[in-house]
Write a structure and sequence with these properties.
two-stranded antiparallel ribbon, alpha+beta, 5 helices, 7 strands, binds zinc ion, 16% strand, Muramoyl-pentapeptide Carboxypeptidase, domain 2, five-stranded mixed β-sheet
Length: 198
């Protein structure tokens, strides 16, 4: 390639987002908003949606996945990058600050800087955690001392791996993790399905 082409490629902003499972090879992707199995009971992502994240988020996730693999776990993602347009739709359906980000300010999910996930076994089998995804109750808080000992231990294992990889927790949602400076990243509006396939 010529120097000019290389320079253009280097400058190419194209997508700042990468498919997380190309970076974390054994990632289990179960995007709940691409189904109606979510708290809205409505599919708000198109079928065939990908788990997109900023490359930095995906690389940190790979680090957490390495730690967890050695302990007999894999990561399963429930939500990754969320197009800004979808944030407005979700807000219309569920305008509850603290659980759905006000769309004009934007969610860190709209920046590719947040990910919702859980643990599964190496075979992809279910692992006990304190609550299902998007449970808006004290049982989903990191400080929750109820539930089973196993669920609390697994929550702690996940937390240690995610914090070890440089993510910041959300005190009210054990499954939600942010890049520490996610708020300073730009809001993006990229398609979840590549345009050619839509
Ligand atoms: Zn989240």
């Amino acid at each position: 390639m010529t120097a000019l082409v290389l320079a253009l490629l280097a400058a190419e902003p194209a997508s700042k987002l990468v498919e997380a499972n190309t970076v974390v090879k054994d990632l289990v992707v179960d995007l709940r908003y691409a189904t109606d199995d979510n708290f809205l009971h409505k599919q708000v992502y198109p079928a065939g949606s990908r788990c997109l994240l900023l490359r930095e988020s995906a690389e940190r996730l790979a680090k957490a996945a390495d730690t967890l693999r050695a302990q007999g776990f894999r990561l399963k993602v429930w939500d990754c990058y969320r197009p800004h347009a979808v944030q407005f739709e979700m807000w219309k359906m569920f305008p509850k600050p603290g659980y759905v980000a006000e769309p004009r300010a934007g969610s860190n999910h709209n920046r590719g800087g947040a990910v919702d996930l859980t643990l599964v076994g190496l075979d992809g089998g279910e692992v006990e955690l304190p609550t299902p995804f998007d449970t808006f109750s004290p049982a989903a808080h990191h400080g929750y001392t109820g539930g089973t000992e196993t669920s609390r231990k697994n929550r702690q294992t996940l937390k240690a791996a995610m914090e070890g990889a440089g993510f910041t927790k959300n005190a009210m949602e054990w499954w939600h993790w942010d890049l520490p400076d996610a708020k300073s990243r730009p809001i993006l509006d990229e398609p979840l399905v590549p345009p050619a396939k839509q």
